Amino acid sequence: MRFWLIQLGEPVPGFGADKNGARLMRTGLVAQELARRGHEVVWWASTWDHMRKEFRASKASRTFLESGVEIRLVHVQRVYQKNISLARILHHAQLARAFRREMAEEQPPDLLFSSMPTPDLSLAAVEYGEAQARPVVIDIRDLWPDDMVKVLPRPLQFAGRLFLAGVSRTVSKALRGATAIVGTNPDFVSWGCTKGGRAQTSADRDYPLAYAMTKADDREIEGAARGWDELGIVKGQGIQTCSFVGTLGASCGLSVVIDAARILEREAPGQHRFVICGNGPLLEEGRRLTAELENFHLPGFVRAPQIEELLRRTDVGLLPYPNRATLRANLPNKVMEYMCSGLPVVTSLGGLTQKTLEEAGAGVLFREGDASDLARKIQALKADPGHREGMGKAGKKVFEESYAAEDVYARFADHLEAIAKTPIRS
Question: Rounded to two decimals, what is the model's pTM?
Fold first, then answer.
């Protein structure tokens, strides 16, 4: 069978900063599983890299991965720098028009799978599916645009709803026309059905975010190890290492980690180390604010082998995310990454993350934005390494039972195959 997967926000192997490989996320892992089963898979994405805010290619491009997945990049000149902006809405509209043109020239697939966001592309997929009598599955990854309004200051939320009214209508229309709605948790699926004004059916299902444990080759690991050695990031030595790898933007909680590091450098010098990796708008500001801190490292973007080696040298995984509705309803990939690596999670995120960690005994919660509380929780883990290691082992057990990518996405692929084989009712 032939599958089209439409996703703009994930790392795309083979292009730009990910030219030499990228850690696959949800859509990439589904694509890989479908290709492994012998299906023809096309992953549609954009030349504009949403996470890095830069072009990954200067023109429409295509390539084939070793897995057999074909990557198709759609190109438009209009871009954006802020996630919540008119420029982004216009970019998506222009991209959807280009996507429609390119779809019209291709052999129709047996199924279209589109991530939500993006509303315009999901609607384009639904309308194409209706015209070609092909099923369309929408995967809800974010409560767009409802959650966007909630991050605005309260006095601006009414204006925000008016500004995003057109986006909201596009989301509803796409969800209403989809053959099936899937999501990362039951609440997202229920929200999608309500937003689309439709009854939930057996085809509307949730599949959690899952994590694929990757292993770099020995030569890559040796190079990564030398790099961390040169920075002084060495396991043991009586120093507890707390790490985070991700986009350094408004939602990463960088400021509270910096403040906690400052407290611990003053109260427990030489006992704690913070390694915060990734690119983003806060990287340079973070480096400026931590220039005088000996216990804080901001190395910037790191590749998969460096992440793998860093996690081996890490004692505590940090997740200082804000309690936004979308984040509370999800279990972020970062949680699975830490659990897979046998690390306890220190987080400010309530909701599903808090519930999962508490039930597993795999982490501790600190008050959002409270650097003193974060410092206390980190100090407590340093004082009781047996408890810290026990939480890491408990998390690894839960990961292996429930969140291993090969299990979750095999079931996901089964579901997509079943929908693709089901005749569309006229």
Answer: 0.86
